[in-house]
Amino acid sequence: MRLELGNIYINDVKLSDTTKVENGVLYVNKEEMLKEIGGDEHIKSIDLELAHPGEEVRITPVKDVIEPRVKVEGPGGIFPGVLSKVDTVGSGRTHALKNVAVVTAGKIVGFQEGIIDMTGPGADYTPFSKTHNVVVLIEPVEGLKQHEHEAALRMIGFKAAAYLGKVAKDLTPDEVKVYETEPLFESVKKYPDLPKVGYVYMLQTQGLLHDTYVYGVDAKKIVPTILYPTEIMDGAIVSGNCVSACDKNPTYVHLNNGIIEDLFEKHGKEINFVGVIITNENVYLADKERSSNWTAKLCKYLSLDGVIVSQEGFGNPDTDLIMNCKKIENEGVKTVIVTDEYAGRDGASQSLADADPKADAVVTNGNANETIVLPPMKRVIGTTEFVDVIAGGFDGSLRPDGSIEVEIQAITGATNETGYVTLSSKGY
Amino acid sequence: MSKKIVHYINQFFAGVGGEEKADIKPELKEGVIGPGMALNTALKGEGEIVATIICGDSYFNENVEEAKATILEMIKKYNPDLFIAGPAFNAGRYGVACGTIANAVQEELDIPVLTGMYIENPGADMFKKSLYIVETGNSAAAMRTAVPAMANLALKILKGEAIGSPEEDKYIARGIRKNYFAKERGSKRAVDMLMKKLKGEEFKTEYPMPDFDRVEPNPAVKDLTKAKIALVTSGGIVPKKNPDRIESSSASKYGKYDISGFNDLAEADHETAHGGYDPVYANIDPDRVLPVDVLRDLEKEGVIGELHKYFYTTVGNGTSVGNSKAFATEFAKELKADGVDAVILTST
Predict the structure, then answer these.
(1) Which residue is closest to A347 within chain B, CA to CA?
(2) Nearest CA to CA, how far is A31 from chain B (Å)?
(3) Contact, A348 vs A322, CB < 8 A?
(4) Which residue ranges form the domains of chain B, and what is each CATH number?
(5) Of A50, A153, B52, B284, which residue has the fewest beta carbons closer than 10 angstroms?
(6) Is the distance from CB of A236 to CB of A89 less than 8 angstroms?
(7) Which of the residues bear the PTM Pyruvic acid (Cys) (chain A) (predicted)?
């Protein structure tokens, strides 16, 4: 499967009467966009605001972040099974608007929405301080239950990204990257001497409000299976969860998964990157056992020499991570796991809820409990009224002057466990 | 002006004598004695040992409280900028004494401290979490390498400079995790680590697996019909509106609430503060997480003796092992004092 990904670099976003891209500037017709993404009966109001890198702006509570993309050639459309029909995606050509993100925000759904600061110390911790953000502020109708609220927000976010992505369809990309994965036997024939490497992609599926969707299927209900990496670049996997902001994978990160990109860098040269095994993080022990048995089985079946396993969330999924690692290693497949830590605010506690000597190659994306003081910002998009109760906040997090003391757990993407960020942690 | 240091050594390194003199009480001497001389030289005039305290290892370990009190008094009057104990190498009792007194100086006098030991010295295990312990060889023959390492760390502490990693500054890892921004993003580091692992090259994990603290379950309760049972949860059930504002994640506290007036928890009176799971079903019926209704039934049926008047609750989500241990240490005493025979611990 071969995908051409055409990147169009955007250096500014402005409101205008037509939605278009000109000279690297994305112009957005607010009225038209709101009309296109609105209409959900569960939603009282939707508004748009823009936030640019370096501005004194705080966005919170943030639910999802999504990159605008559009399918240009090849079967299917972006977000198959969710916005588009369920055609198998990942081949042909896709265009992406780079440096731009749709950010969904508004009244809190669960406890786990995040904060994005566009400048100051908090900006260093979130990858989304570097993107021009089109913030969709969504207010639900009175009395809406969390499940419907989450679903409504999720869909509006995808629609918003698809709406903006459409303008990229007829543009000439600034660069075109080609990603190709051959069918297994062909790739082994083509690269007989290269080690076969896979990626075990753990998806957050701890339950309602903690779900991820694959081609529209709730990933709680899947058994581990194999995807071409480029399917994921076309939105085969989307976020539907409110897990702690620091280490959930926003849809943006699924589309731009760093492990997939960095494995492709070496594909055909140092390794044969044969594909992605997706698995879940269900809460029942039998599910954990079954899924980790199956990831190990698939690794063996594909005769892999090495895999990278990434986690999403923390605590309960630490057990899935360790089960996957242990069982895959037991199949003789060399494993590296990617996670983050909850070592306490003082950094002195055990970082994971499970451990095993087989997990001897760990990449950590930082201790989520470390605290930070975020100075007041001139403008808040959304509201800071939930800062004390979101995961990572505590009583008194929001100070009278508008500054916020929180664990970095509350910052969107701070300790992302696909290694999308540079934050890490060391023992002292 | 050079900074003041008080140094602690045992009878052997003071040249008083070996095992036969291990029972000597703490003595205070002005200036340097024994290994202090080499340390002083290595400090290059930026720090100076102004006094040395000598104590026998047996005396210290057999009279800990008295020895500690006497030594703290001796140190106090110098108001030093740093307190150094040892190095103790692999001498067990000396290592424990160095760790104990250094810890006391740090805690009670709020003066920075430093010691040195061999990694297998029992004192190292006891105190590495709370102290900087320079890693030394296992005998006094390693003094040559121990002194410069201790002097280096001493100067950093005296000057208020940032302490480097255990490798950089040659101390025993304290197990404290600190964040930093790496040069490469995590995904790239993971791919590079995998390449090394595949090639059989040396690689360095970023998080060495800890020795896991597993708890053996207690034996079964012999007679449930007479047992007083308490409910404890990490599922975050609290009275409505979360009166003590227990955090939705990374809890810094726990709550203790009276359930004597409840036969059944309901949406109107209880809810969950937990941010790590879907709260909808727990909020509709909090008994799903804290089964007061079922325990009341069992109480009536005589299956259990009684349900304890209070339940203890916190949020397990992202809460450190350190905090969890501290909470339970505190309320387990109360449970025992209240005559509770067994606890049902519910999660989420």
Answers:
(1) B177
(2) 35
(3) no
(4) 3-169 (3.40.50.2300), 224-346 (no CATH)
(5) B284
(6) yes
(7) 242
Q: Is residue A137 included in any domain, yes or no?
A: yes
Tell if the CB–CB gap between B210 and A370 is shorter than 8 Å: no
A123: DSSP letter = G
Tokens at residue B28, please? 């205070």
Number of domains observed in the structure of chain A: 1
Which pLDDT score is estimated for A41?
A: 93
Q: Cα angle vertex B48, ends B45, B50, to 5°?
A: 150
Please give the structure tokens belonging to residue A103.
């950010």
Residue ranges, chain A, pLDDT below 50: none
CB-CB contact of B92 with B100 (8 Å): no
Q: Which two tokens stand for residue B225?
A: 């019909």
Interval A36-57: pLDDT, tens: 999 999 999 999 999 999 999 9
pLDDT of res. A108: 78
- The whole-number pLDDT of residue A145 equals 87
Cis peptide before B87 (omega within 30 of 0): yes
pLDDT tens digit at each of 348 positions of chain B: 689 999 999 999 999 998 899 999 999 999 999 999 999 999 999 999 999 999 999 999 999 999 999 999 999 999 999 999 999 999 999 999 999 999 999 999 999 999 999 999 999 999 998 999 999 999 999 999 999 999 999 999 999 999 999 999 999 999 899 999 999 999 999 999 999 999 999 999 999 988 766 788 889 999 999 999 999 999 999 999 999 999 988 899 999 999 999 999 999 999 999 987 878 899 999 999 999 999 999 999 999 999 999 999 999 988 888 889 899 999 999 999 999 999 999 988
CB-based contact A353:B209 (threshold 8 Å):
no
CB distance A94 to A67 below 8 Å:
no
DSSP assignments along A27-41, one per residue: EE-HHHHHHHH---T
The residues that bridge with A287 in the sheet, in sequence order, are: none
| Residue A50 belongs to a domain | yes
Instruction: Name which of B193, B280, B318 is nearest A336 (Cβ-Cβ).
Output: B193
Instruction: Calculate how close chain B gets to A57, using CA atoms only, in Å.
Output: 23
Cα pseudo-dihedral B283, B285, B288, B289, rounded to 10: 40
Q: Inspect the interface and report whether the beta carbons of A352 and B207 lie closer than 8 Å.
A: yes
Q: What number of CA atoms fall less than 13 Å from residue B72's CA on the CB side?
A: 18
Q: Could you report the predicted ipTM of this complex, rounded to two decimals? A: 0.97
Q: Domain for residue A426, yes or no?
A: no
Domain housing A242 = 2-410
Any idea what the Cα angle at residue B279 is, between residues A65 and B276, rounded to 5°? 60
Integer angstrom CA distances of residue B166 from A88, B222, B272: 51, 50, 42
User: How much helix, strand and coil, in percent to the nearest 5, is found in chain B?
Assistant: 35, 20, 40
Q: Which two tokens stand for residue A18?
A: 């037509």
Q: Is B212 on the interface with A (CB under 8 A)?
A: yes
Would an 8 Å CB–CB cutoff place B317 in contact with chain A? yes
Q: What is the DSSP string of B303-346?
A: SSSEEEEEEEE-B-TT--HHHHHHHHHHHHHHHHHTT--EEEEE
DSSP B287: G
- Is residue A242 annotated as part of the catalytic site, yes or no? yes
Residue of A nearest to B247 (CA): A394
Q: Touching check for B166 and chain A: CB below 8 Å?
A: yes
